[in-house]
Specification:
The complex is a heterodimer of chains A (417) and B (355). Chain A has 417 residues and is α/β, with parallel strands linked by helices. Chain A is built from 14 helices and 14 strands. In chain A, the strands form three sheets. Chain A has a seven-stranded mixed sheet with strand order 9-8-10-11-12-13-14, sandwiched between helices. The chains are: A alpha/beta (417), B mainly alpha (355).
């Protein structure tokens, strides 16, 4: 009996001391909480295992170099496995820990959290996925797509095809091959509008999930429809299968452009390597490749600690997207700190900081975004990189296209939601 | 709870039929109900209430599946799809007609029951694993339909945002308010299930589960009762779907995919087939176990690993522990957590003078 009570006493004292320590530590240190969620085990792990570590690397880099006005970033990650209820749980937990900005992971999760973000005044970023209509900052005040939505990607793809086919699309045949889920079908209304406006013929080819068997669709496109150009909007394993199939059917890959989630190095490797995918056009919302100062600085940070840079860094497309997401969030935070003159910012401050982002390129990795209270997408910028030799080479500069058509669809989508 | 039955003399049919024949059991249940209904929303933090809310939605769905799988013995892997039928029915009624929750929740349930009955028709001819495949087909067909018919799904995104339920003009926005809202339907579902399984219909279900030919010989219309089972089970699923949509503020196609059906199957099997308490245990177990293992790993893992390694290892280790614990519980007690609980209770019934 005696022994038990001493142990209990020791435990109580220990707990009390550690609690006291935690409280004093929090008081001394100025801290900003960023709530990271990720999918490292679910259907999109091919992206998550590269993209999320990149976000952590950038936050660590900011902390190590004291780039945030005396504040340190607390970036705890919660893994959701791409499921919705765990994402809601993660949101509540991170909100409890005081998060004021969250990189959201996944389209259904964005839908589920949208209303909560607005109610709790927490900024969420959804680069390259999420709700296309959330480009409208009036309707979705706390949601920031910050990168080209599927609407903008579709429009930009049409612009790219137009330039490739000699400046006119009249009478041309464009095939749109897409993964048959909501995210896959989303660009279709924009493409249809543009088909009417530009006078090209559009035919859509659905790939049912899980999208590992594309033989019939590719045969249809290359042999029967004889498309002049192909826009490919696929996810997961299917981009690599599509590259293989187009190659096997003798269709020139330089006449295929993949939207952003059909554009990673992992897809090209899974299709059989750089040699197979020569000429394939990939659409990017963050610069691909290694030639950016921030990547060198992160490598230097690892070397200074005597560690190897993470293997995921070689997957430059997804890694750089993680950097873009983290960098824009940090930029928004530093804008917010300017607004509050160094006082602890709230979610509303971060929202204002986010809406003042312009002329922020991170050495060419980030497009010339212009985020405003009305345009949370920042202009819908993309850049096309082509597979040449053993890497991705830019073939265009940053561009956006058909903004009127895109915004018409944004307004139309708001009505149905 | 732990109590002895000595001195129980039932003198009327009503006493014999009572759900809880002993006063002490009634008091124990009342205390637990009071704790969860009244005390929890007032004392728990918002985060813990959000965990309970996720559990409450899962309990309704698990009860429904248990009626079909545990009591009637018909396998279904279409639970997620039936939930989506309820969710989209309610979402359309809310958005198009602006109907309140006390209409949309039964309406969602009834629509799911209708679709569930249609899906149940093949159950007369096919059994066991074959029926599972038929319900799998239903899951895929319903998913496809919702994905492609924009009249149902509200556009290419296949998601309909719905406002918070309002109670006499007061929107239920906070976690505590939503908790009470969900709890009301959970209590209703539990009481309905407890009474269903001791009714004529429930006894017919159990007879069909135990031996369908014998059941038919003693005069049970198997086809009709199998369809009842599908309808009732789908009704619960539909209600769970509506509740989840109200809780999340959205009906989204990706909330109700095949993996959700598998999760519900896991809940009733781990919790205990043919047991109301088991459905509750299973729903709570499957919902909270990943979260609790993460807490444990987060607090303990820092001793062995660096932070960046931890972020990468926790999710994978969590899956391993989750799978391992499921296997452990199924080996220790194949009849589920409900049976485990009953064993513990029986042990303490005569404690310390057990023989």
């Amino acid at each position: 009996m005696m022994r038990i009570s001493t142990t209990a006493l020791a435990l109580t004292v220990g707990a009390a001391t550690s609690l006291g320590l935690a409280v004093t530590a929090a008081a001394q240190e100025k801290k900003i909480v960023i709530g990271v969620t990720c999918d490292r085990t679910g259907p999109t792990q091919i992206v998550g295992t590269v993209l999320c570590p990149a976000e952590h690397d950038y936050f660590d880099y900011v902390n190590a170099n004291h780039l945030l006005d005396g504040y340190t970033i607390d970036h705890q990650e919660i893994e959701t496995g791409y499921k919705v209820p765990p994402a809601v749980e993660a949101y509540q937990r991170q909100k409890q820990e005081g998060a004021i900005i969250m990189p959201i992971y996944g389209t259904p999760q964005t839908h589920a959290l949208n209303e909560r973000l607005e109610q709790d005044k927490i900024v969420g970023t959804t680069p390259g996925f999420g709700i296309a209509a959330s480009a409208d900052g009036q309707k979705y005040p706390y949601l920031f797509p910050i990168a080209a939505s599927y609407f903008s990607q579709g429009a930009a793809a049409v612009q790219f095809v137009k330039d490739q086919l000699g400046g006119s699309l009249k009478g041309k045949k464009i095939a749109f091959i897409y993964y048959d889920n909501p995210a896959g079908t989303e660009p279709i209304p924009v493409l249809k509008d543009l088909a009417d406006a530009e006078g090209f013929e559009l035919r859509t080819f659905a790939v049912p999930p899980p999208g590992v068997e594309l033989n019939a669709q590719v045969l249809d496109i290359t042999q029967r429809y004889k498309a002049d150009f192909v826009i490919s909007h696929l996810f997961g394993r299917s981009p690599s299968v599509s590259i293989k199939e187009f190659k096997a059917n003798g269709y020139p890959l330089s006449k295929v452009v993949g939207l952003v989630w059909a554009s990673g190095e992992a897809d090209i490797m899974a299709a059989g390597g750089w040699g197979v995918a020569q000429g394939y056009n990939t659409m990017q919302f963050a610069g691909a490749g290694d030639d950016y100062p921030i990547r060198q600085e992160i490598k230097a940070m690892y070397q200074k600690e005597g560690k190897q840079p993470p293997a995921g860094m070689e997957n430059t497309v997804y890694y750089n997207r993680g950097l873009l997401n983290a960098a824009i969030e940090v930029k928004a935070l530093s804008n917010a700190l300017e607004l509050t003159h160094g006082a602890q910012p709230t979610g509303t401050d971060v929202k204002k900081g986010m809406e003042e982002i312009h002329d922020f390129t991170l050495g060419g990795l980030v497009p010339p975004l212009e985020i405003t209270p009305t345009d949370h997408e920042g202009g819908g910028w993309v850049r096309i990189f082509q597979v040449k030799g053993n890497g991705l080479v830019p073939v265009t500069d940053w561009f956006n296209a058909y903004r009127d058509t895109v915004w018409q669809q944004v307004k139309a989508a708001e009505k149905t939601q | 709870m732990f109590h002895r039955e000595s001195g129980v003399f039932k003198t009327s049919y009503a006493a014999d039929m009572a759900l809880y024949p002993l006063p002490i059991a009634r008091w124990a249940v009342a205390v637990f109900a009071g704790l969860f209904i009244a005390v929890a929303p007032l004392t728990f933090g918002e985060y813990y209430l959000s965990l309970l809310n996720l559990c409450l939605v899962a309990i309704v769905g698990a009860l429904g599946l248990n009626i079909l799988l545990g009591y009637t013995g018909q396998i279904s892997i279409g639970q997620g799809a039936f939930m989506s039928v309820g969710a989209y029915t309610a979402a359309n009624l809310i958005v198009r007609l602006g109907l309140p929750f006390w209409i949309t929740i039964p309406a969602g349930g009834l629509m799911a029951a209708l679709i569930g009955t249609v899906v149940g028709i093949p159950s007369l001819r096919i059994k066991g694993i074959y029926l599972a495949i038929a319900t799998l087909a239903a899951q895929l067909i319903i998913e496809w339909t919702i994905n492609h018919v924009h009249w149902i799904s509200g556009g290419v995104q296949a998601s309909i945002e719905i406002p918070r339920p309002s109670f006499f003009g007061m929107p239920l926005a906070s976690e505590a308010q939503i908790y009470v809202f969900l709890m009301f339907f959970v209590v209703l579902a539990i009481i309905a299930t407890l009474n269903l399984v001791r009714s004529r219909i429930g006894r017919a279900f159990i007879a069909i589960r135990d031996q369908d030919i014998a059941a038919e010989i003693i005069g049970i219309d198997i086809f009709r009762y199998k369809l009842y089972a599908f309808a009732i089970s789908s009704f619960y699923a539909g209600v769970a779907g509506v509740l989840e949509s109200y809780y999340l503020g959205i009906a989204n196609y990706e909330q109700f995919q095949l993996d959700v059906s598998i999760d519900y199957l896991a809940m009733v099997i781990i919790g205990g087939l043919g047991s109301v308490l088991g459905s509750i245990f299973g729903a709570v177990f499957v919902t909270l176990l990943p979260i609790v293992t993460r807490w444990a790993l987060e607090s303990g893992g820092g001793l062995f690993l660096t932070e960046s390694n931890l972020a990468d290892i926790i999710p994978h280790l969590r899956l391993v522990i989750f799978g391992g614990l499921i296997i452990f519980f199924l080996i220790v007690e194949p009849d589920g957590l409900a049976r485990l609980w009953r064993n513990i209770r029986n042990y303490f019934r005569l404690w310390p003078f057990s023989y």
